[in-house]
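To illustrate the input format used throughout this study, we show a single complete record. The first block contains the structure-token representation of the backbone; no residue identities are included at this stage. The design step must infer an amino acid for every position from geometry alone.
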């Protein structure tokens, strides 16, 4: 997670990319959490 460029466009792309990864992570973890007693 290194940020080399501080341009608004690139940082926005990186932010959306991290948000997408976090969304997929939550989506993959939610069935496991729902399966807990």
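Output of the design step:
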């Amino acid at each position: 997670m290194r940020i080399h460029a501080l341009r608004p466009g690139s940082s926005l792309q990186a932010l959306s990319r991290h948000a997408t990864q976090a969304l997929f992570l939550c989506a993959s973890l939610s069935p496991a959490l729902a399966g807990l007693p």
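Structural context for interpreting the output: Helices lie at 8-34. The CA atoms of residues 21 and 27 lie 10 Å apart.
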